[in-house]
Amino acid sequence: MALNTNPLYIKDLQKVIDHVEAIKDLNGKSLLMIGASGMVGSFLVDTIMLANERLGIEIKVYAMGRNRKKLEERFEKYQSSDNFEIVEGDVTEPLDPSIKADYIIHGASNTHPRAYATDPIGTIMTNLAGTEQVLKHAVATNATRTLFLSTVEIYGENRGDVDKFKEDYCGYIDCNTLRAGYPEGKRVSESLCQAYIAKHDLDIVIPRLCRTFGPTMLLSDSKASSQFILNAAREEDIVLKSEGKQYFSYIYVGDAVSAILHLMIHGKSGEAYNVSEEAFDLQLRDLAGKLAEINNKKVIFELPDETESKGFSKASTAILDNQKLKANGWDSVFTLEESLAHTVQLVKDEV
Fold first, then answer.
1. Cα-atom radius of gyration of the chain, to the nearest Å?
2. Cα-based distances in Å from 214 to 12, 238, 257, 271
3. What's 3-214+251-279+319-334's CATH class?
4. Rounded to 10 degrees, what is the CA torsion of 126, 132, 133, 139?
5. Domain NAD-dependent epimerase/dehydratase: where (predicted)?
6. E strands within 284-347?
């Protein structure tokens, strides 16, 4: 069964649609989702396409990625729709000028440790060069609004002077390391957004996502949370490659997408917004334990291999302060328990 025909998955999509009531105000508009086959991008595309069906609206979706075959397989359900079009392209190259979308979301990026270590140049340039091409395209096509999907990692390591990261915090990153390519690429891309706002009067909003999980994850994803989910989906013990004392903000992909859609409609241009939910602030070992409990399994400890460890974040505490986003009118719709249970069940159906 394809993920976007699974009743449990569709139920989650519907919850997002019901939660973001203003989605109907996008009727007649168009959206270019760059990184459409990724965890966040694919959930967002599915949400918009279901909204078209359930609400009787017409939002045109351009789903962009480097691999057409992968996009065609993932979004086969929408191939006959006039409101859906696949765009094959590398975001680091000029975008097709014939694609004129009202809204652009740049979500293309390497997002897991093994990719950071094995494709360090691509990790940096997909953000830096990719963001430049997206912003040039936004200028050329007079886009209404552009969203650059950033990350909790731009805050670096908590220096011990705050409990939570607010949007104006700037922690420590050792830029002279291989692992720094991801957060530094995101940081300079945010700066580039501000430059385009100043020079070209672009309307840009920057959601900063915490560690995101969900059933749309790539099975090759080497993030710890994704590996835990794969263990749980296979009804295996959960493998923890550290003591698990890292304390992080997590969010279900459904809540991440609802926040992105909310900010696409209600965010203030030039502003960055932390995207998180307090109930999902967990130590890594607690996350592992909750996933182990689903199948009555246990947590075991295993050292990472050398390549994987090079991509690991050095941060041990990374909790986002989400009050700015909450004050803008957003709140979460999913509980931690249902998010983990739905993710494991849906991934189990895929593996």
1. 19
2. 11, 17, 11, 26
3. alpha beta
4. 150
5. 32-275
6. 299-301, 317-318
For tokens 């739905």, the residue is 342
User: What's the pLDDT score for residue 309?
Assistant: 59
Where are the extended beta strands (E) located within 222-342? 238-240, 247-252, 272-275, 281-283, 299-301, 317-318
Residues 20-42: pLDDT tens digits? 999 999 999 999 999 999 999 99
User: Tens digit of pLDDT for each residue in 75-94?
Assistant: 999 999 999 999 999 999 99
Q: Spell out the domain ranges in the chain.
A: 3-214+251-279+319-334
C-alpha 101/C-alpha 62 separation (Å) is 8
CB–CB of 197/269 below 8 Å? yes
Contact partners, residue 7, CB within 8 Å, separation at least 6: none
Q: Strand, coil or helix: what is 238?
A: strand
Residue 4: burial class (beta carbons within 10 Å; 0-12, 13-18, 19+) = buried
Which tens digit of pLDDT belongs to each residue from 287-342?
999 999 999 999 998 766 666 555 555 568 999 999 999 999 999 999 999 999 99
**CA-to-CA distance for 304 and 314, rounded, in angstroms?**
14
- Per the CB < 8 A criterion, the answer to whether 214 and 339 are in contact is yes
On average, the pLDDT of the chain sits at: 92
pTM of the model: 0.93
Nearest partner of 223 among 182, 273, 172, 178, judged by Cα: 182
pLDDT digits (tens, 9 = 90+) for 115-168: 566 778 878 888 899 999 999 999 999 999 999 999 999 998 888 899 999 999
